[in-house]
């Protein structure tokens, strides 16, 4: 395919195809190129206050919680997240809404005209495009979800008003290292001197606190400075003079506690009633999302051991209500598939496996070899999530909940099946 530059009147899809082939590497570590491109078009000179959100899991739900709480108080908010489920536009929201294709085209056109001879990856283009759009909309707050790690991620070119680490676990080991200490050090790279650095992880590696203390960041740590206690039907959050008991949220309580702590530290916490009302209305696509009541079907993006352990707690709630669990798993080949499956092995009665398309997609037959015995002998394999759902749903018993999980790609396929 040629590298003919699209125009400002070209469809968004033409731009996305063009951007995907611009840089030889999908991931290129380092900030010099992306910072130079940002400075070329004056992207870093903005009045918006930026909250950088890093972490292995929980970035999206923490950002969505922060977004909802800020919008409930009348602030304007820009939110950048990745990857998207179905449409690229999902990556950028202004005041809780996605933007039309032309807005993204305008952003990419401005970048292409202004970047000079700087080469950018697809993700770097998306990050700078989001910053361009937020500057155009002059939002009060920008919630910037870190893509990979922290220290060398494209988002780290900004000067944050506060930095957040949600959780720390092993993922992208080829880039970040194979210990939590190495991963934590990389993620701590989003901290800044004399700037709030809120860490929600429940077992914080020493490398995170060591680096934070070394640069004199204002560390606010889970289990030291703020606490959350799971309750039978909710959670209790405590930080400083704040002490709230809340109903069970639709997102992990740990991420709610982290988001509330960020808001409290920045003097942006709504009153207790508004907090409760906002949490009660909060839904995040693809995070233990119910697709159907009859048959009972959920979908979840869980794709690493930590997110699988959280999914297990959600499935245990269904088991305690008397449901059996049938898991349809489809994953990418470069994920820790064995650990993910193992985290759910004691809660799932029946397994099915589906293949994912694309160069990174894992084959169902390979997933089958990772299932615990005797499941590996009795489980079905399917060529796609779509074909699996077509086959499984008509025969699903009323006492069984089907969970479709393993990747953002898997969730997108399940959502599109339902939309059809």
TrEMBL record:
Which GO molecular function terms does the record list?
ATP binding; dihydrofolate synthase activity; metal ion binding; tetrahydrofolylpolyglutamate synthase activity
Is Lipid biosynthesis among this UniProt entry's keywords?
A: no
What GO terms describe the biological role, i.e. biological process, of this protein?
folic acid biosynthetic process; tetrahydrofolate biosynthetic process
Q: Which UniProt keywords apply?
A: ATP-binding, Folate biosynthesis, Ligase, Magnesium, Metal-binding, Nucleotide-binding
What is this enzyme's catalytic activity, as reactions? Answer: 7,8-dihydropteroate + L-glutamate + ATP = 7,8-dihydrofolate + ADP + phosphate + H(+); (6R)-5,10-methylenetetrahydrofolyl-(gamma-L-Glu)(n) + L-glutamate + ATP = (6R)-5,10-methylenetetrahydrofolyl-(gamma-L-Glu)(n+1) + ADP + phosphate + H(+); (6S)-5,6,7,8-tetrahydrofolyl-(gamma-L-Glu)(n) + L-glutamate + ATP = (6S)-5,6,7,8-tetrahydrofolyl-(gamma-L-Glu)(n+1) + ADP + phosphate + H(+); 10-formyltetrahydrofolyl-(gamma-L-Glu)(n) + L-glutamate + ATP = 10-formyltetrahydrofolyl-(gamma-L-Glu)(n+1) + ADP + phosphate + H(+)
Identify which top EC class this enzyme belongs to: ligase
| InterPro entries, per database record | Folylpolyglutamate_synth, Folylpolyglutamate_synth_CS, Mur-like_cat_sf, Mur_ligase_C, Mur_ligase_C_dom_sf, Mur_ligase_cen
Q: Mur ligase C-terminal domain spans which residues?
A: 286-407
Q: Name one GO cellular component term.
A: cytoplasm
EC number(s) recorded for this UniProt protein? 6.3.2.12, 6.3.2.17
Every Mur ligase central domain range: 53-195
Task: Write out the similarity annotation.
Answer: Belongs to the folylpolyglutamate synthase family.
As for what it does, the entry says: Functions in two distinct reactions of the de novo folate biosynthetic pathway. Catalyzes the addition of a glutamate residue to dihydropteroate (7,8-dihydropteroate or H2Pte) to form dihydrofolate (7,8-dihydrofolate monoglutamate or H2Pte-Glu). Also catalyzes successive additions of L-glutamate to tetrahydrofolate or 10-formyltetrahydrofolate or 5,10-methylenetetrahydrofolate, leading to folylpolyglutamate derivatives.
Protein's recorded name: Dihydrofolate synthase/folylpolyglutamate synthase
Q: Which organism is it from?
A: Pseudoalteromonas rubra
